[in-house]
Design goal:
Blueprint: H1 2-27, H2 34-39, H3 45-55, H4 61-73, H5 87-122, H6 127-141, H7 144-158, H8 171-200, H9 203-210, H10 215-244, H11 247-252, H12 258-267, H13 271-299
Length: about 300
């Protein structure tokens, strides 16, 4: 397992480099001049050129990229164009906020998804199974901004049960987590159902039932562990998607996360913050995939991770 982990960490290097090149090129294609925004719309051409030279934007693109990537390798992502603060100082707390939101959302997804998936598999083709399928389709299809606004209107405006937006107590986390986790819950639910239905048709499950074991023992001790392997894969991928795709939810609920910071930085043409934020999210996604693969060995010792 150690060799497998080291190999995957080495594979992460070209992935991160590829992401860094793609992001660097894309942000330089965004219309707008960062130097003009920093200097001010009323600044003279000389002032704008002075700012551009100070920020290093007058250098060729390949020079700017290698300067960025060499500093980033040492943990220095530069200074924000917009605030003048260190990039890691800007990102640090917001990344933790997004991580908190993502973990809460995946918890919602796992509890709802695995629970309904198990019941649907056990009661295959029942009314509950059909309703769960319908709700799953709605959950996957409904845009998160619409779901978020609906939950805000119902639980914050009409019922006054949860705060409307922002970050404070744990109550502020519930509506954004439910909004972000609902589409993933639908995906996890259908995967759990299909995987468990397939496992319940295996010969060793029939043997366990023939021995007179209780149905709960057959499902929990024999079927569920094998059925969870593909579910773990989907859950790990969903957590990565949630962290990277929380932009809409963070904007709707005014959640001070890294996704909302990226939107603000794009509007301000704050290149260092955009590059650092996307790189950190890319590294997080790759590490989550690695953690998911390592969990395979814990769930099923027969899987040889080499």
């Amino acid at each position: 397992m150690l060799n497998f982990t080291l190999k995957r960490l080495l594979y992460m290097i070209p992935v991160v480099l590829g992401v860094s090149v793609a992001v660097f090129l894309m942000i330089h294609l965004i219309p707008g001049d960062p130097a003009q925004l920093v200097a001010g719309m009323e600044a003279s051409k000389e002032d704008v050129e002075s700012v551009r030279e100070t920020l290093g934007l007058n250098q060729p693109l390949h020079v700017q990229y290698f300067r960025f990537i060499s500093r980033a390798a040492g943990g220095d992502f530069g200074t924000s164009f917009r605030t003048g603060r260190g990039v890691m100082e800007e990102i640090g707390v917001r990344y933790l906020n997004t991580l908190q939101l993502g973990l809460a959302a995946i918890l919602v997804a796992v509890i709802l998804g695995v629970g309904t998936g198990i019941v649907s598999a056990v009661k295959k083709y029942s009314l509950f199974d059909n309703l769960a399928l319908l709700v799953s389709l709605i959950g996957v299809s409904m845009p998160t901004f619409f779901l978020g606004l609906t939950l805000m209107l119902l639980f914050s405006v009409y019922l006054d049960l949860f705060p409307l937006a922002g970050k404070g107590s744990w109550l502020h986390l519930i509506l954004p987590a439910v909004t972000l986790g609902t589409p993933s819950a639908a995906v996890v639910s259908r995967m759990t159902r299909s995987s468990l239905v397939e496992v319940l048709d295996q010969d060793y499950i029939r043997t366990a039932r023939a021995k007179g074991l209780k149905e709960t023992v057959v499902i929990n001790s024999h079927a569920l562990r094998n059925a969870l392997i593909p579910v773990v894969t989907v859950t790990g991928l969903q957590l990565g998607y949630l962290l990277g795709g929380a932009v809409v939810v963070e904007t709707v609920f005014a959640w001070p996360g890294i996704g909302r910071l990226v939107i603000q930085s794009i509007l301000a043409r704050d290149f260092p913050v955009i590059q650092a934020a996307v790189l950190i999210l890319a590294v997080t996604f790759v590490l989550l995939n690695l953690l998911t693969d390592l969990l395979y060995g814990l769930l099923d010792p027969r899987i040889d991770l080499q």
